Each structure stands twice: as structure tokens, then as C-alpha cells.
């Protein structure tokens, strides 16, 4: 790797304007392609083998109009009732406009007889269930906006209108622009402290921005080929911005150091690309491996989040090893211009002796450092013991979003469970038929009524009434009962009254925490049916999870026993519950896979069994501490208000799994840069303690700067209104801070000091079989002395 990177760096430095032009043109072209592709994101909860996916498959095959569920258009009036004349006209016109909106299959008027269940008891809140012919993956933002805009007649009448369901979620994606700017502003300040020149500071910023624009546009293009999760672009922004700046920081730092030592400009750029760039490629590869290993979880949503984030990392590595050398070549000696002095001394004018003093202090008291750091990590990790994976909930979105407004309206008017209905899909072996016993009973009642009519007529005739008068009197006395029986008969003639279906409906309705069950909707063949079940608890509540599990394990099996009916619980709420269950089952396996792959990579890089084992244990400790803090803040609700939340919210099921893969990969970045320096000094001196001190002294400032940038970038995303993004922001920021301080500054030097030469132990038989990998190309440059100053 060293040789090719060296030649790439030299080529890019020599042909800098060409490379810069290619990068800019490529970024513009990809951005235009991304703009043309549009914003196509959706949370595909398909999980092979789960009840929710089976329910979805049944509905898509038999009842496609019901497969996607409905999107409630919520109407709230602050004065009067919705049934008042003026409000009713506005609601009627709104429903009419909704029905004429593209992709709308069905919209029920809550003020009609059939829509009575959709009007609150006090008649101040109602919702229009809007069924679409497209699902979340295919619904465009402008199409969702058209549904909300159809509520303009109601808005003009003073009625508050909001949209829920997946259409509302499409319109409630928080903007990440403010977070990006804050993260970049923090990075600018930190880079000015690190480099001391505005020109050098600008290089990582420009590289990261161009790389990020390209990566996000590529992800948009990917949306044409497959489902891209809603949070994927934001997650890619967080990681791409952080690693993009960090990777460039490492290379620019090496280049400036070499220039101060008198190395010729072109040679320095090429060597920085080959050495620090080699470490960047290696570190980026470990991040990509960790993210792509999520494929083995067998969870499509998690897999796609992994590879979209990996796209951002790959582009960041390409930018650091091609665009950055070109920018360095274009700047030439001007990299040291526009000096900025933010501290007492300029970073170019002194050696950071503070880190060496710190390293010596840790080396003198390794046991104290080890015990103190481990105790701190264990204390921080303790809340993790109560970690419970849940699901995302629009109730945690900012109050300004239409999805949150719809959620609040539904909760106030109809109960918390209305915002996350369950769909029970059923398959029947034989087509559904009307309940013949009930029909016979109604027919007998009608015959009895006819006999009663005849008796009334005869009595009237005996009293002197005419035939016509007698018939009118008999009809008048039995009219209400006759109409009632006619309605009952019409309902009883529906296949939905099949005893198999009513038995299932009655059983579900009697289950604890079930508020209501809709009559079954059948397909044309009568072999497929769907019920809409409203829970008494909110979608994210544990009670709703218990309800779904109870329906699946007891209620439905008991109600369908001995029949040819099979039923499954589906819908978005059930899908998230299945996702949480699957991730809980897969999390230990995924941890083992990521740790195993990282162990192999580090073993090949440093030719040691002890170093990767130590790294795995320490990274697990730092991730556990991050889990503990996320649990403490979000699940337990401590300090939730400080980050813009109303209170405690569930830990979204895929957050810990993604966090682990990301953090394990990113922590390897700092591990690689630190251990590379320690190993280099150990090879020179054969004094392990001295090597640890010098390695930490040489890398302390740059690793701290890189980590601080990453922490600032991640923390800035806490301002994002999406609670999932907040969880990622807090978790990643805390973990990086812990890793760069407690782990790199205490644990690593303490443990390696205690281990001494044993840190680099490897069985001779294994060493002979492993390929030799040099991250920064020590062997390569041992045969290639530096060019003299002034020569190229």
C-alpha cells in the first residue's frame, strides 16, 4: 500500500489543478444526479420470518389497498364543534379535495355515518383516514405535501390541520443544516489551534465538505436502486464530516512536521500521503469493515444504514488521499501563511512537552491509572444493565412538525394508541361466507314481525278501519323494528360475518389493552381479511409490546384453533417491535463478528496477539460506557430537557447496534495512529516503556484535536429535532470523548507499560504464516531516503 500511495500523492501534488478540477466537476455531477434522484428515504421494516412481514406479505398479495395502512389527516377546532354548519362545510370540502389528490385510494369523511368512529365524543377533533396506493418507500415529499395542502379549506375556517402516518413523517424530517454549520465552526476553531495558520486550517474543511457533498449525493442516487433509511443521510453526514476532517488533519500534520524538518515540498506531500495516508486508509478500512459487517445481522434496515454510512467513509478516505495532496501541491509553501496565534505560543514554535509529562506520569503509576480508568468506565456503564430496546415514536418529534401535531391530536381525541394502529392480517382456507345461523335467526324474526303486522291489521279491521288504514297502522307500529331488522340482515349477508372471523374479532377485542377492533375488510375472493386494532397505550409503550406478544402467543392461536384461519399481527408498530426483538437476539453475535474482524485486522497490522486483544477489551469498555450514558439520558430521562426532549424516550432498537459498529471502527482510528508511533519507537529503542511515552507524546495533540473535532460534530447533531439523531449524537460524542481521554491517555499507556515486551508477543509459527503489512511503510522508506531540500 505504501508504494502506490506514495506515487498517488506525488502525482496529485504535481498535477494539482487537474485533480482539483476533476474533484470539483465530479462533485457537481454527482450532486446534480442526486438532485435529479430526489429525496427517497423510507424505513423498510421487512424482516423475513417475522409476523409483521408475513402480515405485510398477505396484505400486499390480497388487499394491496390496505397494505400500507392509513395516514390520518387530523382536524382540530378551538371554537365550536366540527359538526357546526360552517365547520362541516369546510370538512366536507377538505375530504373532497383529499379524494382528488394523486395516489389517494380512499378517504373517509368523519362527519358521515360511516365515519362516526373518526369523530371524537366532544366533536372537536376528527381525522380523515387517507389510504394511498403507494407505500413509504415510493411516496415523494411533494406528494405528501399535496395531501396536507388538501386541508386548506379547513385551515381557512380556523381548523388546525395536521398529517400523521408515513405521509406525515415524510414532511417531518428535521433539517440538519444548523448542525452542519455548528460542527464546521467548531472544527475551524480547533484546526486553527492545531495548525496555527488559516491556510492549513482550510484544507481539512474543504476536503471534508467536497467529500460530504459527493457522499450524500451518491446516497440519493442509491435511493433509486434500494430503500434508503430515513436517518441514513443524517448519519452519513455525522460520520462523513467527522472522519473527513480527522483524516485530513492527520495528513496535514505529518506534512507540516516534515516541512519543518527540511524535507522538500513534493517529497513531503508524497510521504505524508504514503505514511499518514496509509494509516488513514487502514483506519478507514477498519471503519468500513465494521459497518459492512452489519450485513451479517440479516436485518435489511440495519444493513442499509451500515453501507450508506460506509459510503461516506470511503469517500472521505478518497478525498484525503487524492484531493488533499492536490490542495497541498497547489498551496505549496503558502501552507504556513496567514499565521494565527490563539494561545500563548504558536504550535509551530514549540514541542508539546505536556503530553510527554503526562505519559511519564502514567508510566510511573500504571496500576493506579489502570484501576482508576477501569473503575470510571464501569461506573459509566452501569445504567446499561437496564437497557431496553424500543421503537421510534412521532410523539418525541418537535411540536412544530405536522407528524407530532397529528400524534397529539389523535391522543387527545381518541387515545394514545390511535397513532400506531396494529393490522391483523388473516388468511382463510375456504372463502368467507355469511353466518347462516344468524341469517336464519333474522329471517325468523322478520316472519314473526310479518305475523305481528297481520294481527295488527286484523285488529284494526275489526274496529272498523278500512283495509288501507289497517295496513298503514300496522306498518307504522312495526316500522322501526322492520328497519332495524333490514339493517341487521344487510350486515348479516356480508361475508365479514363468517363465524371464523367474528370469533377472531371477539377474542382480540377482549384482550387486555385493546381499545377497539374494526370490522374485518375482505378481499374479493373472501380468503383474506384485515382488522385494524387500536391499543389503549402509545406505540412506544412497553404495554403495546406486551399486547403484540400476547396476541401472537395466546389470543390469536386460541381463537383460530381448529379452524382453517391463520392470522398475523403487522403494521408499523408491530414491525418496530419485531425489529427490536431481532436486534436483541443478534446484538451479541454482531459484537462477536465486529470484534473478531477487528482482531484479525490489528493482528495483521501489528503482528501481535496481545495488542488486538487489548484493543478489543478497551473498546468494549468504552462502548459499554457510552451505552450506559445513553440509557441514563434517554431511557431514564435524566437531563432530557437539556437536549430538547419532553422527557424519557425509548432507546431506538437499531441505535445500539449501529453505535457499536461505528464506535468500534472509529476507535480503531486512534488506536492505529497511537500504536503505529509506539511500535516505531519500540523498533528503534527496544525499550517498551520509552516507546509508550514517546508514542503518546508524539500523537497526543493530534489525536486530541481529531477527537475534539469529532465530539463537536457529533454533539452539534443533538440540536436536530429527530430523537433518533439525538441518541446517535449523544452516544457517539460521549464514546469518542471517553475513547480519546480515558482509554488513549490512561488505559492504553498503563496496560502497555505493565505488559512491556509482551505487548508485541506472537507465536513464531503464526508469524511465519502471516503476511507482513506496514501501515506507514517503514521498510519502504528505509530503502528510499528523503529527497534533499529544494529537489523534487
Structure explained in plain terms:
Helix content is 64%, strand content 7%. With 792 residues, it is α+β, with helices and mostly antiparallel strands. It has four domains: 2-41 and 174-397 and 577-782, Multidrug efflux transporter AcrB transmembrane fold (Up-down Bundle); 66-172, Alpha-Beta Plaits (2-Layer Sandwich); 422-433 and 495-570, 2-Layer Sandwich (Alpha-Beta Plaits), CATH 3.30.70; 436-492. The relative contact order is 0.13. It has 27 helices and eleven strands. Mean pLDDT is 86; it is low at 786-792.
Q: Gist?
A:
With 792 residues, the chain is of the alpha+beta class. The chain is 64% helix and 7% strand.
* Uncertain runs: 786-792
Separation of the first and last Cα atoms: 22 Å
Coarse structural class: alpha+beta
Mean pLDDT: 86
**Total beta strand runs:** 11
Helix content: 55-70%
Q: In percent, how much strand structure appears in the residues?
A: 5-15%
According to CATH, what is the topology of the largest domain?
Multidrug efflux transporter AcrB transmembrane fold
Give the second-level CATH assignment, the architecture of the largest domain: Up-down Bundle
Rg from Cα: 33 Å
**Overall tally of structural domains:** 4
CATH superfamily annotation of the largest domain: Multidrug efflux transporter AcrB transmembrane domain
Shape: elongated
Largest sheet: 5 strands, antiparallel
Reading off the top of the CATH hierarchy, the class of the largest domain is best stated as: Mainly Alpha
Quaternary status = single chain
Tally of alpha and pi helices: 27
Amino acid at each position: 500500500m505504501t508504494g502506490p500511495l506514495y506515487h498517488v500523492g506525488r502525482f496529485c501534488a504535481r498535477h494539482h489543478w487537474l485533480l482539483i478540477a476533476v474533484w470539483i466537476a465530479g462533485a457537481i455531477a454527482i450532486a446534480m444526479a442526486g438532485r435529479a434522484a430526489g429525496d427517497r428515504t423510507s424505513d423498510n421494516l421487512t424482516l423475513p420470518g417475522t409476523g409483521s412481514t408475513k402480515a405485510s406479505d398477505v396484505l400486499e398479495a390480497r388487499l394491496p389497498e390496505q397494505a400500507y395502512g392509513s395516514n390520518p389527516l387530523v382536524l382540530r377546532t378551538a371554537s365550536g364543534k366540527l359538526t357546526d354548519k360552517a365547520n362541516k362545510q369546510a370538512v366536507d370540502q377538505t375530504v373532497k379535495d383529499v379524494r382528488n389528490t394523486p395516489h389517494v385510494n380512499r378517504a373517509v369523511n368523519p362527519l358521515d355515518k360511516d365515519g362516526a368512529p373518526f369523530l371524537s365524543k366532544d366533536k372537536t377533533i376528527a381525522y380523515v383516514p387517507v389510504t394511498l396506493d403507494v407505500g413509504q418507500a415510493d411516496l415523494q415529499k411533494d406528494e405528501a405535501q399535496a395531501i396536507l395542502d388538501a386541508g386548506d379549506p379547513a385551515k381557512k375556517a380556523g381548523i388546525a390541520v395536521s398529517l400523521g402516518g408515513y405521509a406525515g413523517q415524510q414532511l417531518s424530517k428535521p433539517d440538519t443544516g444548523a448542525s452542519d454549520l455548528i460542527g464546521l465552526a467548531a472544527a475551524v476553531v480547533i484546526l486553527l489551534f492545531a495548525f496555527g495558520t488559516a491556510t492549513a486550517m482550510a484544507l481539512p474543511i474543504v476536503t471534508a465538505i467536497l467529500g460530504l457533498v459527493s457522499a450524500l449525493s451518491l446516497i440519493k442516487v442509491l435511493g433509486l436502486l434500494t430503500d434508503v433509511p430515513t436517518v441514513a443521510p443524517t448519519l452519513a453526514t455525522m460520520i462523513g464530516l467527522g472522519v473527513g476532517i480527522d483524516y485530513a488533519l492527520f495528513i496535514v500534520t505529518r506534512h507540516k512536521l516534515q516541512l519543518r524538518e527540511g524535507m522538500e515540498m513534493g517529497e513531503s506531500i508524497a510521504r505524508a500521503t504514503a505514511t499518514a495516508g496509509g494509516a488513514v486508509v487502514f483506519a478507514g478500512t477498519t471503519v468500513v469493515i465494521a459497518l459492512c459487517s452489519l450485513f451479517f445481522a440479516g436485518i435489511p434496515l440495519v444493513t442499509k444504514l451500515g453501507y450508506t454510512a460506509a459510503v461516506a467513509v470511503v469517500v472521505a478516505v478518497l478525498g484525503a488521499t487524492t484531493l488533499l495532496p492536490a490542495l497541498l501541491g497547489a498551496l505549496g509553501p503558502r501552507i504556513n501563511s496567514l499565521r494565527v496565534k490563539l494561545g500563548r505560543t504558536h504550535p509551530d514554535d514549540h514541542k508539546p512537552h505536556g503530553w510527554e509529562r503526562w505519559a511519564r506520569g502514567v508510566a510511573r503509576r500504571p496500576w493506579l491509572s489502570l484501576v482508576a480508568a477501569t473503575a470510571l468506565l464501569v461506573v459509566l456503564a452501569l445504567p446499561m444493565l437496564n437497557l431496553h430496546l424500543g421503537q421510534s415514536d412521532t410523539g418525541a418529534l418537535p411540536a412544530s412538525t405536522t407528524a407530532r401535531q397529528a400524534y397529539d391530536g389523535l391522543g387527545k381525541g381518541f387515545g394514545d394508541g390511535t397513532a400506531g394502529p396494529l393490522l391483523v392480517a388473516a388468511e382463510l382456507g375456504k372463502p368467507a361466507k355469511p353466518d347462516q345461523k344468524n341469517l336464519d335467526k333474522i329471517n325468523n324474526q322478520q316472519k314473526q314481525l310479518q305475523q305481528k303486522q297481520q294481527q295488527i291489521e286484523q285488529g284494526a279491521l275489526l274496529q272498523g278501519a278500512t283495509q288501507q288504514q289497517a295496513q298503514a297502522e300496522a306498518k307504522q307500529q312495526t316500522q322501526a323494528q322492520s328497519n332495524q331488522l333490514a339493517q341487521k340482515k344487510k350486515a348479516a349477508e356480508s361475508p365479514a360475518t363468517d363465524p371464523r372471523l367474528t370469533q377472531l374479532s371477539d377474542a382480540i377485542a377482549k384482550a387486555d389493552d385493546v381499545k377497539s377492533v374494526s370490522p374485518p375488510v375482505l378481499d374479493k375472493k373472501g380468503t383474506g381479511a384485515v382488522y385494524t386494532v387500536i391499543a389503549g397505550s402509545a406505540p412506544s409503550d412497553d404495554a403495546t409490546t406486551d399486547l403484540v406478544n400476547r396476541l401472537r402467543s395466546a389470543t390469536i392461536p386460541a381463537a383460530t384453533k381448529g379452524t382453517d384461519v391463520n392470522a398475523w399481527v403487522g403494521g408499523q408498530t408491530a414491525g418496530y417491535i419485531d425489529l427490536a426483538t431481532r436486534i436483541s437476539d443478534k446484538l451479541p453475535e454482531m459484537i462477536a463478528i465486529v470484534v473478531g474482524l477487528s482482531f484479525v485486522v490489528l493482528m495483521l497490522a501489528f503482528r501481535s496477539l496481545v495488542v488486538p486483544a487489548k484493543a478489543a477489551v478497551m473498546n468494549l469498555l468504552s462502548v459499554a460506557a457510552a451505552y450506559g450514558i445513553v440509557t441514563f439520558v434517554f431511557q431514564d430521562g435524566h437531563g432530557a430537557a437539556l437536549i430538547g426532549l419532553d422527557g424519557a424516550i425509548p432507546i431506538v432498537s437499531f441505535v445500539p447496534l449501529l453505535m457499536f459498529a461505528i464506535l468500534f471502527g472509529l476507535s480503531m482510528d486512534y488506536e492505529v495512529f497511537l500504536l503505529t508511533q509506539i511500535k516505531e519507537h519500540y523498533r528503534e529503542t527496544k525499550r517498551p516503556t520509552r516507546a509508550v511515552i514517546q508514542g503518546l507524546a508524539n500523537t497526543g495533540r493530534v489525536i486530541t484535536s481529531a477527537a475534539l473535532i469529532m465530539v463537536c460534530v457529533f454533539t452539534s447533531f443533538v440540536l436536530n429535532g429527530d430523537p433518533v439523531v439525538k441518541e446517535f449524537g449523544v452516544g457517539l460524542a460521549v464514546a469518542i470523548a471517553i475513547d480519546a481521554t480515558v482509554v488513549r491517555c490512561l488505559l492504553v499507556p498503563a496496560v502497555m507499560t505493565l505488559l512491556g515486551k509482551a505487548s508485541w508477543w506472537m507465536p513464531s509459527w503464526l508469524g511465519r504464516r502471516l503476511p507482513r503489512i506496514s501501515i506507514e511503510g517503514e521498510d519502504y522508506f528505509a530503502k528510499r531516503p528523503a529527497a534533499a531540500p529544494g529537489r523534487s
